[in-house]
């Protein structure tokens, strides 16, 4: 069984797939977060994995990222769409907005974040980790749908499962980061190591621990994040439904060549 496109996100995306069936996959890195649903969207074969499991069993620092990416790669997936709840670090990125990440900053620790642990030594470039073609198309579609969206944004990824302190949030904001999340790393880089195009879609749910000079904004809570994300997931599904038919079979973005020149040969 094969698929062209992979989706990693919340369980609400199950409903996108036509004539879907669920398959259990075992990889060299263990089992993915859950069984994989494979079906069609606009005639294209799509595989979906709920990142935290269908019952939200995996906290951010325990998600089996390598197994998820390896499972999709084994199915033949060439492009991945990842949806994420994010907190805003700047006033311009308001709750309910969409963000198409172009950069990340990794502040996680202890995560197995590479497929390359032995010879030959591989150094994959992370200069431009997100697919420019998918970002361009997604932003164009968001405009057509009347969604408030940001074509780019730097996401700082923290380990979780706790939220930031106010001091941490102020620090991240002072560095020029736009949004904060717990799951984008190592997911995006593992996809890059497999030569898979990756689109990261952030749904802004809150203003993290609050903004400077804004006393009216409350600190983030899991309950509030869930409420806002649930509202945004409907628009995210519309966006993905419109995006998939426009994805060109030919990739001209360079993501597939991520490993070219990355090998350090012995002398």
Question: What this model shows, in words?
Answer:
The structure is a single chain. Strand 10, helix 3 (166-174) and strand 11 form a beta-alpha-beta unit. The chain has 267 residues and is of the alpha/beta class. The model has no long low-confidence stretch (mean pLDDT 91). 42% of the residues are buried. Helices cover 24% and strands 25% of the residues. The strands form two sheets. Strands 1, 2, 3, 4, 5, 6, 7, 9, 10, 11 and 12 form an eleven-stranded mixed beta sheet that branches. It has helices at residues 65-74, 132-144, 166-174, 184-193, 222-243, and strands at residues 5-9, 18-23, 36-41, 44-50, 79-88, 98-100, 103-107, 121-122, 149-150, 154-158, 179-181, 197-206, 263-264. It is globular. The protein has one domain: Nucleoside phosphorylase domain (Rossmann fold, 3-Layer(aba) Sandwich), CATH 3.40.50.1580. The chain is built from five helices and 13 strands. Helix 2 (132-144) crosses helix 5 (222-243).
Give the tally of β-strands: 13
Residue stretches low in confidence (pLDDT < 50, at least 5 long) are none
**What is the CATH third-level topology name?**
Rossmann fold
Order of helices and strands: EEEEHEEEEHEEHEHEHE
Helix content: 10-25%
CATH class: Alpha Beta
The CATH architecture would be 3-Layer(aba) Sandwich
User: What is the CA-based Rg, rounded?
Assistant: 18 Å
| Structural domains: how many | 1
Under CATH, the homologous superfamily reads Nucleoside phosphorylase domain
Q: Specify the structural class.
A: alpha/beta
Distance from N terminus to C terminus (CA atoms, Å) equals: 42 Å
Shape: globular
Number of helices: 5
The largest β sheet comes out as: 11 strands, mixed
**Approximately how much beta-strand content do the residues carry?**
15-25%
Mean pLDDT across all amino acids: 91
